[in-house]
Amino acid sequence: MKLEETKWSFMKTKYYVSLIQQANGDQEVHCETCRALPKPEHRVLLGEFYACQDAVRAARKIYLTADGCKICSPTCHSR
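and the corresponding structure tokens:
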């Protein structure tokens, strides 16, 4: 792993949960740079996290069926 990759992998990222329910009933969790990030009026800031797993865990305190976005958080997308 290069030094540059290491430096960026330890930075926190802002995560949001969408207020728009998916067809399967889930609320999606997105990082701040996601191309599918909903407009500000359709999302709630969860906070800053090192990994999407922590963001999804926080979102599930609000929405039991929260899931990671398949675009920006594929390792947290399970449904």
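(Above: one complete record from the training split.) Strands lie at 13-18, 28-31, 43-49, 67-68.
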